[in-house]
Amino acid sequence: MKQFDPVPTPRQLVWHKLKFYGFIHFTVNTFTDLEWGYGDEPESIFNPTELDCRQWARVASEAGMRGLILTAKHHDGFCLWPSPYTEHSVKNSPWKNGKGNVVREFVDACREYDLEAGFYLSPWDRNHAEYGSPAYVEYYRKQLLELLTGYGPLFEFWFDGANGGDGYYGGARETRKIDATRYYDFPELWDLVRTHQPGTCMFSDAGPDIRWCGNEAGVMPLTSWAKIHGEGFAPGRVDAADGQTRLGTGDPDGEFWRGVEVDISMRPGWFWHESEPPRSLEELKAVYHSSIERGGNLLLNLAPDNRGLIPDADIERLREFSAFMKECESGDVAHEMEVEADSTAGTDWAATNLVDGSEETAWAAEEGVHKARITLAFPEGKGRRINAVRLEEFIELGQRVESFKISVCSAWGQEIEMYRGSTVGPLTVARFPNVHAEAVHIDLTARAAPVLRRVGVHVVK
């Protein structure tokens, strides 16, 4: 079976499989009740009394997260590791008498709990006196290299889009503007990541590996292509008139594969604020349905408090959310059904591969076939009440499906349409009212011969 370009790289394929992981926003802002520090915060303010990165990792692991990303440096410029290139770091804080290293403890905790580790390193630095000059860019590269070479394998590196504005800047207290598309020389920064961490996926509006969904509301559009045109996008800059929308939808004929990451915080803010409660379970349920179930990866932020611990209220809400996700993913009975398709590319691509539980096998229609039907039937007289169908494309060969329809066959022989959808990609879950089904029909329309990895049929509990 020929691939339908673009296709994901090996590191992107690994990233797609993670699906759910966490953000950790923690710095001087945790102690000032701010979202964006000005850069003039004294190092002495950073003094968590019970900082425990192992608690962060344990909570994340128990919730089913596959990794964590730490804000090693946010816009305020304060570094959570004792960088030799600045005095504005933990080394001049009272925490552990200046001998501590949050980044090291974070990575060690991730390894202990079998979590992937990643970093966020803000390009904008409101503390640094030379921000806006070439000297700052060299400083940023040095810090990037510290994180790339000192802490082992990383699964993701986050380049934030906030760039330039007012700040402390070594005491100047002024506004500084930069051209975000040129100032940092992002291609060179990306090369550094590729050289030292070839397995790391990089995030920004422009990728190069992962793109933003275009909002912080936890919502992906129903139509979403993992491929996108690169023109009009740069880290922190969306020039195209429809660019914000296209960050979510992608482009059906896009030349770059850039999977979608949906980022949202457990609380209204990204950093801990005592006055803010965690989101309701109903809000988080909606986020799950409109992110993971639409083929995106969900990056859910956890904000440790000024003790250095994830608050109990957040832990309890996360437990509830984890239980809900497990319930959504359970009850798949497709393996009990007989499967056939009206087009098959050969014995290696048989329809039975859709329910064999393997990540390595797939069903494919014959080359040149753009419309195909898959039928899954329960044993005669043993129909079940169902309410969801799960579809996954075999994205190693590209994203192809542009629309699909789910119908059920009733006990009276009627074929009843239950759902119409558009793209499938890494994952799409079609949910509909509870219905008794003797069989399920999936009609696919694709830009090239459709290739699916898996079909799931979920029964009502």
Describe the 3D structure.
With 461 residues, the protein is of the alpha/beta class. The chain folds into two domains: 10-329, Glycosidases (TIM Barrel); 334-459, Jelly Rolls. Helix content is 21%, strand content 26%. It has helices spanning 10-18, 29-32, 53-62, 102-112, 134-150, 186-196, 243-249, 281-289, 312-329, and strands spanning 20-24, 67-73, 116-121, 156-158, 165-167, 174-176, 201-203, 210-212, 227-228, 233-234, 237-238, 256-257, 259-265, 297-302, 338-341, 363-364, 371-377, 384-393, 401-409, 415-421, 428-437, 439-446, 451-459. The strands form six sheets. An eight-stranded parallel beta sheet has the order 7-4-3-2-1-14-13-8, sandwiched between helices. β5 (165-167) and β6 form a beta hairpin. It is elongated. It starts with 9 loop residues before the first helix and ends with a strand. The mean pLDDT is 97.
Number of domains: 2
CATH topology of the largest domain: TIM Barrel
Number of helices: 9
Given as residue ranges, the uncertain stretches (5+ residues, pLDDT < 50) are: none
Q: What fraction, in percent, of the residue positions are helical?
A: 10-25%
CATH class category of the largest domain: Alpha Beta
Tell me the total number of β-strands.
23
How far the N terminus sits from the C terminus, by CA atoms, comes to 38 Å
Largest beta sheet, briefly?
8 strands, parallel
CATH H-level homologous superfamily name of the largest domain: Glycosidases
Strand content: 25-35%
The strands making up the biggest β-sheet line up spatially as 7-4-3-2-1-14-13-8
CATH architecture of the largest domain: Alpha-Beta Barrel
- Helices and strands: which structural class? alpha/beta
Morphology call = elongated
Radius of gyration: 24 Å
Instruction: Tell me which oligomeric state these chains represent.
Output: single chain
